[in-house]
Amino acid sequence: MRNIRMTVSYDGTSYSGFQTQPIKNTVQDVLEGALLSLTGETIKITSSGRTDAGVHSRGQVINFHTASKIPVHRWCLALNSLLPPDIVVSNAQEVADTFHARRSAVQKTYRYTIRCGRHPDLFKRHYEFHHPTPLNTDAMQAGLQWLLGRHDFTSFCSVRSTKLSNIRTILKARLECEPLDPLLNSYAIHIYVTGNGFLYNMVRIIVGTLLQVGEGKRTSDSIKEILEAQNRAKAGPTAMAHGLTLWEVVYDQATN
């Protein structure tokens, strides 16, 4: 059996998340259906992690085992011909049998985009959360810095999480602003968070809390207090799903 690794990009607007669910349309279901059509095999794929309904991916990674003899350089072309236009696979590689898309990952980066200003961008409405009033981005950036390092992120985790431990390490966190669009009188704010792993809704709750910081409803230093409280009720709301994208997954070269 061969172990094939691929990168998957998708627009999550029309899907009930990545992971297969009973009687629901998911990215995993569509990928596995395409693999069945291509190889005649019932293949179960492994992903670097699940994404919720409406969340997108630029760099989701999957792997699967197959007896197919299709040359590795033909996999993406063949699969993309069977996939809908909102899912694209790229960068197919044959990897060691020990490679596991989730367990072998050493860090992930998520990006959340906010359109700040009077008007939304019509052509990016599925990928940006629109916030019509000004935000204090300096305060938001300062708040982000409290998240760096190893912490218990219970306050920034959905109460529906089933993880045994809520301790995670945030390696990098930054905020970037695009130039003002004079036609729309608005601009995009990108929040990037890189960590060794993430809890259920963690990034969206972080963003929902930072929005309150940007609105002046909380201070930058309140992020530290929220972390220490280890209480979901102390943090802000869960930001809308459509602004979130799984940006990148990084692996140790030794596992490839």
TrEMBL record:
Domain Pseudouridine synthase I TruA alpha/beta residue range list: 8-101, 146-252
Matches recorded under Pfam families: PseudoU_synth_1
GO BP, one annotated term: tRNA pseudouridine synthesis
Enzyme Commission code: 5.4.99.12
List of residues binding substrate: 110
Active site (UniProt): 52
Reaction catalysed by this enzyme: uridine(38/39/40) in tRNA = pseudouridine(38/39/40) in tRNA
CDD domains tied to this protein: PseudoU_synth_EcTruA
GO molecular function terms noted in the UniProt entry: RNA binding; tRNA pseudouridine(38-40) synthase activity
Keywords: Isomerase, tRNA processing
First-tier enzyme category under EC: isomerase
Subunit structure: Homodimer.
Family: Belongs to the tRNA pseudouridine synthase TruA family.
Function: Formation of pseudouridine at positions 38, 39 and 40 in the anticodon stem and loop of transfer RNAs.
Official protein name in the record: tRNA pseudouridine synthase A
Organism per entry: Paenibacillus xerothermodurans
